[in-house]
Amino acid sequence: MAVVGSTGGNLFSHGGDDPHRMLAEICRQADAGGFEVTTVQLVAAGASMDSVKDSTPAQLLTLRDGALTVAARGSLAEVNAAAAAHDAQLAAAVSAGEVEALVLVSADPQGVNAATVGAAVAAGLPAAGTGGSSIAAAQALGLNLVAASGTTGSTSTTRAVSYIAGLARHFGTRYRPVLGSAETADATGSPWRRVSVRGIMVGSLPAFIALALILAVGKIPGLDALTPVFDALIAGLPVVVAAVAARRVSGLGEVGLVAGVVAGVLSTAGGIIGGLVGGILAGALVAYLLRWTLARRFPVTTANIVAGGLSGLIAGLVVFLALAPLTNALGEGVKDAIEYLVALNPMLAGALAGLAIWPAIMGGVYHAAILPLVLLEMGEKGHSFFGAVDMVSLVMVSLGITLANVVRPRTSGERALAASGAAVNFGFGTFVEASYPFLFADKRVFAVALGSATLGGLVVGATGTEATAYLPAVVAPFVATDTVGMVLAMLVGVVVPFVAVLLINLRARRAAEA
Asked: Alpha helices, DSSP H only, in 172-296?
């Protein structure tokens, strides 16, 4: 199999900033599944692809004699040119039958990786991949994707497992993921360069979804006894955030995780932001204390205890004794500011949020700004205004567009593409990028998306609904503050684009027939 792609935009905060470890995990899982990685073509940029320039430092990582090698180094423009030349060679190998499967890691199917993807389409190669925009583009080209998803909430391990599991299903081979034993400590370099607020917050997303589910179940008559469970979960969220932050920043696995838990327990009074600050401080201290103790010939067991325990204790006490009032006030301030702005004109606030959310996700702003706001709101009260807008104006609008292309596509090939996206939108409340091929193919569809998102957001504001995304469509209304209002908003979000795109497609087909 061949692995192609880049360190990505949103992916950069989910392991893309450590491409060697990311590729090593893919190779490890591939070996467990009986696959051999024979080619690697990965453009590793010095920053997220959401904000890079042609002058951004970058490297081209390839496989030479079984070892990862830097084949080119320079500006992103120069490395892309080298990658394109390598891509032409890989495309020839695909056409010659030397490659039997493809893995796309935030690839560029219409640019740097165009030749390889085109050859894979022609050869009918199975492929697995992640990266919402790139996967949507690959699907539009007709690539046989046996496993595809976005990047949010994933890790290098879970993505690698997803790739190999999909390919193993396709080839009918047995695969048992190898978990937990091969993560090597990475304490090199400054720990501060590993600080990524959006990466930490999104890594903590499963805990926030658990909170939302308990909130929903607690509304069922007779289950109000779960209220203390909700209170316990919301009180424990700072611990989760601190643990994720410390593990990420330290680069030292379990040692950093323990430090984060200790810091998080002491940071709970500071709220989500307190947990974030405590975890970052603990992670940085772990890295420094471990080097300091090992340099003084401490036994490794003692070094781990000192680094993991003392760093968590120091960071936690800093928040507990000094920063908790400030971080708690900051979190409350974010919540109060959103509530104040919504209260000024709920319908206008909802409409503007709905209008802005599609450009935000396409421009890379969503994961950096909007999703952290959703999680901050949820950390304060268990639901979010922006979470409701996310579900209605992104997920439901994408569902409506893809459903219209299932019912009446312009070409037969678009039906399968739309069906897979619609299923993920409805069943999991994510992968809105599935509608990108249809948005980019017709400006009218893009205008429908913006208009429908604005209208759906307006209904969210008018009904005062708060909820969250990343849940099945049938579950979302039950985590909302207003179930009827959420259902109404979701119906507007899905029905309006469905009808509009259906009419656009019918007209396009009649014009083509004429």
From this structure: 197-203, 205-217, 227-250, 254-267, 271-295
Global pTM? 0.76
Q: Specify which residues 58 forms β-bridges with.
A: 45, 74
Distance CA 387, CA 496 (A): 20
Give the pLDDT confidence of 334-356 residue by residue, as tens digits.
Answer: 888 988 988 999 999 999 999 99
374 in the same domain as 328: no
Q: Are residues 277 and 240 in the same domain?
A: yes
Q: Are residues 21 and 130 in the same domain?
A: yes
Q: Are residues 350 and 457 in the same domain?
A: yes
Question: Is the separation of the CB atoms in 413 and 368 below 8 Å?
Answer: no
- Residues 34/173, Cβ–Cβ less than 8 Å: yes
- Which residues, including other chains, have CB under 8 Å from residue 507's CB and lie 6 or more apart? none
Does residue 339 form part of some domain?
no
For residues 110 and 87, what is the distance between their CA atoms, to the nearest angstrom? 12
Per-residue model confidence as pLDDT tens digits over 293-342: 866 767 656 777 888 889 999 999 999 999 999 999 998 888 889 889 88
The answer to whether residues 501 and 459 belong to one domain is yes
* 503 and 402 Cβ atoms separated by less than 8 Å: no
507 & 367 share domain: yes
Alpha-carbon separation of residue 461 from 354, 367, 370, 469, 511 (angstroms): 10, 22, 17, 16, 39
Do residue 216 and residue 251 come from a single domain?
Answer: yes
What's the confidence (pLDDT) of residue 314?
96
CA 314, CA 282: separation in Å to the nearest integer?
8
On whether residue 237 sits in a domain, the answer given is yes
- Mark whether 397 and 287 lie in a shared domain: no
Domain annotation covers residue 277? yes
* Whether the Cβ atoms of residue 122 and residue 95 lie closer than 8 Å to each other: yes
The answer to the question of residue 186 being in a domain is: no
Angle CA 339–341–347, to nearest 5: 100
Q: Facing residues of 148 across strands? A: 129
Full residue range of the structural domain in which residue 66 is found: 2-171
How far apart are the C-alpha atoms of 138 and 406, rounded to whole Å? 18
